[in-house]
Structures are given as C-alpha cells and as structure tokens.
TrEMBL record:
Signal peptide: none annotated. One of its GO terms (molecular function) is DNA binding. Pfam families: Sigma70_r2, Sigma70_r4_2. This is RNA polymerase sigma-70 region 2 domain-containing protein. CDD domains: Sigma70_r4. It comes from Candidatus Lloydbacteria bacterium RIFCSPLOWO2_01_FULL_50_20.
Length: 191
C-alpha cells in the first residue's frame, strides 16, 4: 500500500473514531506541521502546544471532513493550524500586555522576545533576517513551501486562495526576499 492510499485509509478510519488510525494521521503530519509552527511562532514550547491543539481540533473535525485528495487534506490540516497560530498569538499578546502593565517595563518585554530566537550560522542568520523584513503573507507562503514542504495546491487550500495565486505569491515573495539578501547569497542559494 503506498503512502497516499495509507493516508486515505487512516483518515477515513480516524473519522469514524479509530484511535490507531488517527495515530497514523498524526505520524504522517507531525514533522511537517511542527516545522511550520516553529517557523511561525519562533518558540519550541509554544509550537508544541499549538501542535497539540491543532491535532485535537483535527480529531474533532475529521468526522465532518470529506476526503477528496491528499492536497485537500493537507489544506484542511494547515487551515486549522493557521487558526491555532492566530489564537496563540492573541493569547501571547494579551499575556505580554498584562506583563508590561504589571511590571511597567518594556525593556523586559523586548528581552523576552529575543531569548527564544535561536542563533544560526551566518548564512541562516542572513536568511532569517531577510525573511523578517517580508510581509506576513510572503513569509507564510515561503515557510509553507520550504519548511513544511507543501505543494502549491496544498498551500492554496491552506491559505484559502487559488493554486495560481499561491504560485504568484510565492514568486513575488522570492523576488522580494532576494532584495533583502546580499547578491552573493542570492547567486549561490536561490538560482
């Protein structure tokens, strides 16, 4: 049985309450989803929390989901993940606001923001610095494409756009990213 057939079977069985089948669904998407969440949230613990919340929501939503294709399934999964990221950011913003009000210290807040950002060798640092300059949509498209390794169809479904729009956004994001990177990096990495 190929992986696509196994996924169809697992999703269908999990939708009927089969926990072992849901474990197979979890195993199929765990790494892909975690890398995306970590890239979006920049904090391992928060990414793990949102990963758990996402899979809980997937478990609850599967009985209503109708499997038509693998791309649509991953679009469904990443749509849930995006909602959970948004909710997590709102919670985080509220907590930070409360901390600032309680501590009356913005310096402490900015130190907390940077302690979770990992340090990387120079090339990775250049790339992350350039990514930070992009708009949220461009960053998200690139992270879905390269960190989560989604196809353009899966990206389109996750971002609720057309496949063509996902390709155009990807192309524009790459072009914009190149403007923030040194020429030697672009020539070596993105050609």
């Amino acid at each position: 049985m190929d992986t696509s057939s196994a996924l169809v079977s697992s999703v269908q069985k999990a939708a009927q309450g089969d926990r072992a089948a849901f474990r197979a669904v979890f195993d199929a998407g765990n790494d892909k989803l975690f890398h995306y969440l970590l890239g979006q949230l920049k904090n391992r613990e928060e990414a793990l929390d949102v990963l758990q919340e996402t899979f809980i929501e997937i478990w609850r939503a599967l009985p209503k989901f109708r499997y038509r294709s693998e791309e649509e399934f991953w679009g469904f999964v990443f749509t849930i993940a995006r909602r959970k990221i948004f909710a997590s950011r709102k919670r985080s913003a509220r907590r930070k606001h409360i901390d600032v009000v309680d501590n009356n210290s913005l310096d402490l807040l900015s130190a907390e923001n940077t302690e979770h950002i990992p340090t990387y060798p120079d090339n990775h640092h250049l790339l992350l610095h350039a990514l930070a300059k992009l708009g949220e949509t461009s960053r998200e498209i690139l992270k879905l494409r390269y960190w989560s390794e989604l196809s353009f169809k899966e990206i389109a479904l996750a971002t609720e756009t057309s496949e063509n729009a996902a390709k155009v956004r990807h192309h524009r994001a790459i072009k914009e990213l190149q403007t923030y990177l040194p020429k030697h990096y672009v020539d070596q990495r993105l050609v």
